[in-house]
Amino acid sequence: MNPAPGSTSAHPAAGTRPSARITATRRLLAGPAPGILLCLVVGALCMLISHYLSSVSALLISIVLGALWRNLAPVPHVLDAGVGLSAKKLLRMGIVLLGFQLSLGSILALGPGVLLVVLASVTITFLLTAWIGKLMGLDLEQRLLIAIGLSICGAAAVAGAEGTIKAKEHQVATAVGLVVFFGTLMIPAMPALGLLLGLDDRGIGMLVGASTHEVAQVVAGAGSVSAAALAVAVTVKLARVLLLAPVVAGVGLYLRRQHSVHGDKNPPLVPLFILGFLATMLLRTTLDLPGALLDSASMVQTLLLSASMFALGLGVNLRSIFTTGIKALLLGLIATLIIIIMAASGTVLFPPT
């Protein structure tokens, strides 16, 4: 008996549903979704851990976990696309929201002496690092990434400047690795140096904020001293973060004029997310925003930055840095010593009031 009209197409269609689902699943797994989901989950877990270990930042936990995984066990290739996207897109979204934590009023309240120390520390460290890196024969992209990362705000600055500099993936990973390595050493070292210099808690906070590479490392270092030290350290550090926009713009302008970057297109003068960061900072400064909005923005910002720090940590190959990046490692040490000297001398001369 022949099948009824219309029934012949029903069975093949039903038979193709499982294969269509399998194909859709494979496409999903081949895309960025697994890597992004993993980064967000780890970021959330690190926030939870940080809640119970109040002296340790979620961002620091995230980047250390990522670096440990990368250097102790293989990372599945199925995560590559999502991890790469998280290291860039999620981080830039987090930096935009970071602007809500900055008020020009609180930064100006530090006083002209402290602001002069911040400006001098960032400017001199950046310029000397870039110049010394040139003398050492490092690529322009590598020395600029190291100079920006170790003078301003660590891994976030490296990732923020990456698009403007058109750096290669291994150059970004090297700069981030140096931030993690030297910045982690600074967590106990800077408070200890402050005690040796005879500084009070607020002075130690200024020293930590003006020298330590990563915001998370600043929180960890100053938080181990006192609440007063932490408040000053974070404000000073955020003043350094504020300099990310003009430094990236200056680097972009320099590269446009020199035409020294790879590729045919000119690098962007100011990346869009930097403009977003400035916009949210101005909103915080000029408007009386509800506390609930600021708290929510802070939570989402921490999640995005924690997820992106984990992704950046997964790109840090410490063995490669120590074996093939000796010049970069030495430049990272020199840059760290420069900013410590600038911050320490500035704090002694212009202590916070």
UniProtKB/TrEMBL annotation:
Signal peptide: none annotated. One of its GO terms (cellular component) is plasma membrane. The keyword Cell membrane applies. Keywords: Cell membrane, Membrane, Transmembrane, Transmembrane helix. It is a multi-pass membrane protein. Belongs to the UPF0324 family. The chain crosses the membrane at residues 28-45, 51-69, 90-108, 114-132, 144-161, 173-199, 238-256, 268-287, 299-316, 328-350. InterPro entries: UPF0324_pro. This is Putative sulfate exporter family transporter. It is found in: Cell membrane. The keyword Transmembrane helix applies.
